[in-house]
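Budget justification aside, the reviewers requested a transparent look at the raw inputs and outputs of the sequence design task funded under Objective 1. We therefore reproduce one unedited record. The lines immediately below are the structure tokens for a 308-residue chain.
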């Protein structure tokens, strides 16, 4: 590779990393966080979680870079989880990085954040981590709102955690959101997982590996919402006034729980099928959350609205 190409690659990489990572400086509803469904890139050179909600450094594969994020059958539950590994690329070491956003081919390369309107209390999930030479992993979630007066994003809340030691078995993480602004209305959420927290400064250790699975949000009213459903669900009609139909991608032997927005459970029933219905004629007008449980784990969440 000639010197010009090396300089171009280095400049591009720095721009990508600095535009993506906000962990070290602390500063929709979300699909696919049970990480069960993965899709090929347009060039079929790598896979990422289905739905376009996540992006990673895997797009550097088309420039000769390594695959740093991939699906793995070593899961906490279900069939798959996400595996992030820090790897060498020429003179650089790239972190395994999974970010809510979209990769584009021009600066700033990452359009970060996804639509979101909730105010959760806690950021939860399960992880394993192999730390090489005292490397650290990082988890980060930030809820923001666009300020039309300043033309900038205001940070409403964030939740962050660094893992410094090797953890050989899936272990729960449970991080409280710290709120800085209780007035602004949220419109987006940034979620970042990194196998090396110092990745933006190329402070990574080759082989540091992070596994993540079963990510969820918990609200102060006790409702748990699956960030990334392990099983896709289609709910229709929505809004509804009498019957709601739920279609799952696969059979579930578990139960369905329906919660009002104040956290009160209004209905629960067992399920053992891919398709079932629910009568909402006696529900009060308003919004509800449907949680599908299998083995006491929320594998799918959907919001519905009842109108009369």
């Amino acid at each position: 590779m000639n010197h010009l190409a090396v300089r171009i690659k280095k400049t591009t990489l720095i721009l990508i990393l600095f535009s993506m990572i906000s962990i070290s400086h602390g500063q929709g509803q979300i699909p696919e966080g049970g990480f069960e469904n993965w899709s090929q890139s347009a060039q079929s050179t790598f896979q990422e979680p289905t739905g376009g909600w996540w992006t990673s450094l895997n797009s550097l594969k088309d420039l000769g870079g390594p695959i740093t994020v991939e699906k793995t059958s070593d899961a906490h539950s279900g069939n798959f989880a996400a595996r992030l590994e820090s790897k060498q690329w020429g003179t650089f070491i790239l972190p395994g990085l999974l970010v809510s956003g979209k990769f584009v081919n021009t600066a700033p390369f990452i359009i970060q954040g996804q639509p979101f309107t909730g105010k959760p209390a806690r950021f939860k999930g399960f992880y394993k981590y192999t730390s090489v030479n005292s490397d650290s992993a990082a988890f980060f979630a930030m809820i923001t709102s666009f300020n039309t007066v300043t033309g900038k994003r205001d940070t409403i809340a964030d939740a962050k955690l660094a893992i410094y030691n090797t953890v050989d078995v899936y272990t729960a993480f449970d991080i409280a959101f710290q709120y800085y602004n209780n007035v602004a209305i949220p419109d987006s959420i940034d979620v970042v997982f990194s196998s090396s927290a110092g990745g933006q400064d190329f402070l990574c250790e080759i082989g540091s590996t992070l596994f993540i699975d079963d990510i969820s949000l918990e609200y102060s009213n006790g409702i748990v919402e699956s960030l990334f459903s392990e099983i896709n669900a289609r709910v229709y009609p929505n809004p509804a006034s009498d019957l709601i139909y739920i279609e799952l991608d696969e059979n579930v032997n578990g139960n369905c729980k329906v919660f009002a927005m104040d956290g009160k459970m209004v209905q629960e029933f067992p399920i053992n099928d891919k398709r079932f219905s629910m009568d909402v004629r006696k529900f009060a007008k308003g919004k509800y959350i449907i949680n599908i449980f299998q083995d006491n784990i929320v594998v799918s969440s959907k919001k519905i609205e009842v109108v009369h």
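The first strand starts at residue 38 and ends at 40. The longest helix spans residues 3-20. Computational costs for records of this kind are itemized in the attached budget.
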